Amino acid sequence: MISRKASLVLVGPALALMATLFLLPLGYSLIWAFREEEADRWGLGNFAKAWEFYSADILFSLVIVTLSTVLIGIFSIAIAGYLTLGRIPWAVALLRWLYRWPLFIPFVVAAQVMRTFLAKNGMMNNALVELGLLTPFQTASFLDWRGIVITFVWKQTPFVTLLVAGAMASLDRSMIEAAQNLGARRGRILFGIVVPQVAQTLMVGLILSYVTMMSVLSVPMMINAQQPTMLTVDMAWRINAYGDYGVANALGFIAYLMTACVTWVYLRKELRERGAHAR
Amino acid sequence: MTSLLRSGLVGLALALLASAIFGPISNILLWAFTEQWYFPAKLPQAFGFSFWERVFRPQGNAFASLLNSVVIAMMTVAVSLAIAIPAGLALGRGRLPLRVLFLLVFLLPQAFPSLAVHMNIARIFYTLGLNGTFLGVVLVHALQGMVFSVWIAAAAFAAVDPQLEEAASNMGATPFTVFRTVTLPLALPGVMASAIFVFLISLDEFTGTYFVGVPDITTMPLLLFTAAMEGNYQIASITALLLLVPSIGFMLVIERFLKADVLAKVGH
Amino acid sequence: MAPKIAKLFASVAMALVTTGAAHAETLYVATGGSQNMVDYVTDYLGPLFTEHNPGWTVQAVGTGPGDAGSQAILEKLSAQKDQDVWDTDVIVVNQLKTAEMVEAGLLQKYRSDIKTGDMVTSDVSRKALGTDVDGFVMPMFSSQTAIAYNPDMVEQVPQSLEEIKAWASAHPGAFGYNGIKNGMSGVAFATAWIYAFGGDAAKLIDGPYDKADEAGWDQAFADLKAFNQTVTFTPGNAGTLDMLNRGEIVMGPVWVDMFYTWQADGRLNPNLKLMLPEPGMPGQPYYYAIPAKAAHAEAARKFIELATSPEVQAEGIVKKFNWYPGIDAKHLEGILDQASWDKLFTDVSPEDLAAKAKPFPLGAYFSDLLEQYETKVSN
Asked: Where are the transmembrane segments (chain B) (predicted)?
């Protein structure tokens, strides 16, 4: 065992890096959001401007990310549930091999992939037309809010599923088997027994996805950088075109607020449980 | 009969899922080798390698970006391991007061939208002269990978059986020898996993590089982004393809590196 | 520390590859604008400069299209303001940001020191959106926006913004442009809209600035907001061309030079056509300028002298990249063949250009226009 002092020394460099590269800029971003450079004073001016310019985008971001999170939750429960309760061995094996493909594909690649796939005359519509399911006049481009949601769900579902399926696999099978013997339907077993026991893992996965999606720049830029668009695009625009850190940080502050609500729930729960563990 | 029907339905659902996953990916393959594709043709009118030649022409920036990406990723791994191994050792084996809090501190960057932090890092780096330098980009990437490198390293060290260490130290080995000959080799697969994780994160990182590296340092994801925004679908697809290979390769082998015993201890 | 080492390695490596010259030096060029401008320096101008000046290599960095790309150069220079030597030798920037750089004292006067300096007499070589930039700049080229369309899908081609407005509402989703955040062709369309519907365009271009002239904008922007409901948004200058090519839109504003270059490249359907609607659309030059404390100012002047020589303007700017020349057209006579010259005017005639090519408005109006687009149209 390593002594207390040595432990602190060993963890020191990592903490120092965290402090300078994360806590410091985070602090700055919170402070600069209230700094009005032009008027040379402190106040809420940046927030007023942010709201005047981008109120639609603020709501748009919230709706997009929330909707994506919900869909990711539904799909990951469905996939992980089938992996746990599925009765056809080849289908379970195939699904296990299949669902993980997008897991480590970077957002910028996913965005490019989807941009060519979901376009009005992209591969998806072309295939549907070839199959006779659509006529060329019915095709529509999905490169708007739907494109962003589809890309987010495509990219993040495997991550949450991986966590949830792992948690489901480590459950005690006896209860599931008992329920099966009693003739319970699989839907009831899934939502009555399995999901409640993995709820926490699911929450963690969804919260991490929520925060990640809130800060992705490449996907909205490449799929739908126009009105309305996500906050990240506006932040980059304020800085790149105007060097306007005040409004950009105000938008960042708003993004923090939107994530703070969900992460607070998680952190509190985590702390309580881990605190109990430690004791 | 019903079981046959059920198999059919399951098969159909899987086929739909497969096309949802592989459709977009195969689309990239098609574009990467397209020479000409005018509306309303359903498939490219000409295939070829001329865009590959253009991407990799000596004056072009693809080679430089590829080299930058790999060099930055390796430097990021070095920096991350240098701080994550001691930190992991302390968190996995040490006696830290408030250990839970320490673990959670490393999770914090995942709890805040990173873009807002990145743009302020860029502003601070400007004053330090770190913007547009390799060091600046490496530091930002190391921060991104921190929670994974530290947590996985901590789990890997925690999974090492303490009795083996005790046995070694009973035979008179110094603490450092114990670490070098027993602890580290046993934890090595987990440490390797964290290294690969960090490598991949750095290779794929976009937002931080966009603010801190541009325009002096271009990495593959940025090259892809620029090409995509410029409407160079072929060039963007070729770059995307190059980035897909390590991502999918890692996805296929991850379970070999991250053994269940380590995985179970991640974040605990 | 690290960048110096990296640059050292880069220049050493380049020197070993390109020449065996005893002393090798690198000229650093930062260029805003779309990828074609970076390609122009990397593939054409850079090698040519090396040929004329053995031992020198040119390293080009692209900072991206629109105001954002030129703003990046502005920030790069201001960040080094207190240092004795700056790391960029030649910059290529748009009008709005050039004006800001001249006002901030970030550039040096050089036009009278180069031989080609008196080959430009146009207004844009003296004024950038109302700001005096005389002596600080040489126009690299001028370019013009126009409306591109697919004649197979448009029966009656609209000839004015008024008709475009009507056509777009009759064909939902068929008109596409890139808003104002991703490149200047969308900005140009928004500007053209204000010129057409927002009041006196000549006043916005010539000044003097008076906020009262913006009285008509509210209605124009409200109409633009309604118009935006019927259009498709494209991801950028190139995105508009790309969506035209893929048949996803039928009409949209584009840069004339990019349009011809893409057609020559086989990246754009050869059937597509251009037109310049009433009352006109804006165009702009990009400027060559030298930072006040450039490390290689002497070489930078040589570079710009080469870049604005009639031969390079004819061969590189007009023939290879389809821009209108930056220097006065008369200097190109006898150097450029008639066919290449005519190619520039395939769809948009010189008479059209004389009547309907407009500059962007004065800086102050321009900033107001962009701000109000965000508050009144996109939000």
From this structure: 12-33, 66-89, 101-122, 134-160, 181-203, 209-228, 235-254
CATH of the domain at C41: 3.40.190.10
**Main-chain dihedrals φ then ψ at residue A249, nearest 5 degrees:** -70, -35
**Chain A contacts in chain B segment 142-161 (CB below 8 A):** 142-143, 146, 150
Give me the residues of chain C with pLDDT under 70, please: 1-23
Measure CB to CB from residue A107 to each of B22, B206, B236 and give the nearest one.
Answer: B206
Mean pLDDT of A154-175: 88
Contact B31 A116 (CB under 8 A): yes
Decide: A68 and A75 in contact? Cβ < 8 Å: no
Please name the chains neighbouring C, where neighbouring means 3+ C-beta pairs under 8 angstroms.
Answer: A, B
Asked if A56 lies within 8 A of C235 by C-beta distance, the reply is no
The answer on pLDDT for B36 being more than 90 is no
CB C166 within 8 A of CB C158: yes
* Tally of structural domains, chain A: 1
pLDDT of res. A225: 62
Q: ipTM value of the model?
A: 0.84
> How many Å lie between the alpha carbon of C176 and the closest alpha carbon of chain A?
12
| Same-domain check for residues C248 and C358 | yes
For A124, the closest chain B residue by CA position comes to B23
Smallest CA–CA distance, residue A129 to chain B, in Å, is 10
Please report residues of A whose CB lies closer than 8 A to that of C375.
52-53
pLDDT of residue A274: 64
How far off is chain A from B209, nearest CA to CA, in Å? Answer: 12
A15 inside domain = no
pLDDT at residue C93, rounded to an integer: 94
- Would you state the pLDDT for residue C193? 95
Query: Does A11 fall in a domain?
Result: no
Which of B10, B28, B84 is nearest residue A88 as measured by Cβ atoms? B10
Contact C321, C328 (CB under 8 A): no
Domain that holds residue A93: 42-272
Strands B46-47 and C25-32: unpaired
Q: Which domain holds residue C217?
A: 143-283+349-378
Averaged over B13-17, what is the pLDDT?
90
Cross-strand bridge partners of residue C90: C29
* Chain B: closest CA distance from residue A192 (Å): 23
Residue of C61, C238, C247 with shortest CB distance to B230: C238
pLDDT in tens, B238-265: 888 888 888 888 888 776 766 666 666 6
CATH number of A233's domain: 1.10.3720.10
- Here the tokens at position B134 are 């390799």
**C322 and C343 Cβ atoms separated by less than 8 Å:** yes
Q: What is the structure's pLDDT at C22? A: 43
**Residues of chain B with C-beta less than 8 angstroms from the C-beta of A277:** 100
Query: What pLDDT sits at residue C103?
Result: 93
Helical segments of chain C, H only: 2-18, 35-39, 46-52, 66-79, 95-103, 161-170, 184-197, 201-206, 217-228, 237-245, 256-265, 297-307, 310-312, 338-343, 350-356, 363-372
How many structural domains are present in chain C?
2
pLDDT value of position B268 = 60
Domain B57-263 falls under CATH 1.10.3720.10? yes
